[in-house]
Amino acid sequence: MNKWTQKKKIAANQPSKRPPLAGEGFGGRLGYYVRRALVNIRQNVFVNVVTIGTIALALLIVSLFLLVFVNMESAADNWSERVQVTVYFDHELTPQEQTGFRTRIQAIGGVSRVTYVSRDEALKRFKGRLRGQEALLEGVLPEILPTSLEISLKRSSRDTLSVETFVGALKRIPGITEVQYGEEWVRRFNIFLNFMRLVGALLGAFLVVAVLFIVSNTIKLTIYARRDELEVMSLVGATRFFIKAPFLVEGIVQGGAGALIAVTLLFGLYELFLYNADSFLTFNPATSGLSFLPPEYIGALLLSGVLLGFMGSLTSLRRFI
User: Fold this and answer.
1) Domain 84-180, what fold?
2) Domain ranges within the chain, ordered by starting residue
3) For residue 10, what pLDDT band results from cuts at 50, 70 and 90?
4) Are 310 and 254 in contact (CB under 8 A)?
5) Averaged pLDDT, 120-129
6) What is the DSSP secondary structure assignment for residue 109, as one 8-state letter?
7) Interval 101-108 mean pLDDT
8) What is the mean pLDDT of the chain?
9) Extended beta strands in 41-105, E state
10) Whole-angstrom distance, CA of residue 219 vs CA of residue 94
């Protein structure tokens, strides 16, 4: 018997390869994991409601803080527009001189807007500030007031170092008599902004860690309640991933549902606050610039809920599988 005949005989005696079953493959397995996760949720309604409620409450706290922080950043940005540098001149500027100074100032960089204030305009503003006491300015002529250029800076150039550098460059321009920019106010304002950002970052990090801890321990209750089922599946030969996958999908569903509930509750609280704010506030939040979270923040919250549910399930499974 030659070698070719021996190989054919051995191949004939070996069992043939199992044909693929219907529904196998990535799509079929994913469908099974999703169906199994939904069955698990229906079979353990109470525990899943507690888990979703915990995720929703935790994310609601985070989103409330985020809403306050976003509006504080918006208010700080509006306040920072008051960071204004004023240069004074001892005479009225001609149109040619105005153009020349504008060109030199804008060449420094970081300039958003330059406004010329004549002596007549300065006197008009002065009278506006003394509304009701205009008699104090009787006999006052515009000639006693200086002319000026009011310079508004771009947002990226409003920190203390940038303002000081800009003012130093202004003082080197010939013809400028005096420069004022409220040095102490700018310094205090930037210190306040940096402090609020630091507090926000620390508090946000603490809330994220706390949420992950709460979610992980809550999901552990779900897995612990079904520890016997997991043990049986392991004994009959199920792989680790086959056991874990439905729980990971379940965590994703729980996290997404919790995040959606949190965003819905936050929007309801926001609308309720706007509707009743007039009764306990001296200003109208709707007209003062108070706004809801931008779409990108809402998307980030929903994605965070999904990731929290996934990570909570993953860390909880390590103890049992």
Assistant:
1) Alpha-Beta Plaits (3.30.70)
2) 27-78+191-320, 84-180
3) very low
4) no
5) 75
6) S
7) 88
8) 76
9) 84-89
10) 75
